[in-house]
Amino acid sequence: MKVEETQAERLVKELDFSKGPVTAVVRDWRTKEILMVAHQDQEAVTRTLTTGLMHYWSRSRGKLWLKGETSGHFQEVKGVLLDCDGDALVYEVKQKTAACHKGYYSCFFRRLRGGKWAVFRKKRFEPQQVYSP
Amino acid sequence: MKVEETQAERLVKELDFSKGPVTAVVRDWRTKEILMVAHQDQEAVTRTLTTGLMHYWSRSRGKLWLKGETSGHFQEVKGVLLDCDGDALVYEVKQKTAACHKGYYSCFFRRLRGGKWAVFRKKRFEPQQVYSP
């Protein structure tokens, strides 16, 4: 799913960046499983809408970030939802391999169980085989 | 779903508040529909875990906020997931009436369609009947 540059600009104008980057919740377009949560400035939303690939604002690195640029684990946008306040988006994506840099399909691989944060998912890949040079 | 005070404190210690409040993504425990996105400081997470009712940190009002305190639209916690970085949580909740103050079950009632943010859900209540004094 892609839109043209001018259309993307109009769509982005309806978002509220007054409190900083907006929140992007990313879910699998088929299973609705929540894959990750990240942040987007104006440029990241615009690039995502015009390229059809998820882009984020990295708070730790302080720069625009194309998900998959290092790992190859791109996220293809299939649908986008906007919340009432205009400061959160839900993206429905087709995820390549896995979303989490720790090797899990979803970053939410821990669940409150028996009073602990228990890992309840299996890894899809070994991080050192993907991220090492 | 509730945990004891000391257990909640241990669970909260594994979260990362170094970049500010953590992000709470709230979904319907049955349909997996995403209802809203909000923010939680340490106290909001602890209160949520010990009472079993969603509490948030209101960035606009600058205070702790029990969802439903005005509207009666409480959110009962049925499950909690934690992400890899410890700065985002997914809550599975049983939602009373509706999550959105604009009257929709989900705050994500708009979807990118035909180049516009189009409303695609129906209202569950009329806001002025719930929030007016």
Offer a quick outline of the entry:
Two copies of one chain form a homodimer. The first copy, chain A, is α+β, with helices and mostly antiparallel strands.
Describe it for me?
With 133 residues, chain A is an alpha+beta fold. Chain A has a single domain, classed as Phosphoribosyl-AMP cyclohydrolase (Ubiquitin-like (UB roll), Roll). Helix content of chain A is 18%, strand content 35%. Chain A is built from three helices and eight strands. Chain A has helices at residues 5-13, 42-51, 127-131; strands spanning 22-28, 34-40, 55-58, 63-66, 75-82, 88-95, 110-113, 116-119. Chain A has a four-stranded mixed sheet, with helices on one face. Chain A has a two-stranded antiparallel ribbon with strand order 3-4. In chain A, strands 7-8 form a two-stranded antiparallel ribbon. The radius of gyration of chain A is 15 Å and the shape is globular. The model of chain A has no long low-confidence stretch (mean pLDDT 95). Strand 5 (75-82) of chain A pairs antiparallel with strand 7 of chain B, so a sheet runs across the interface.
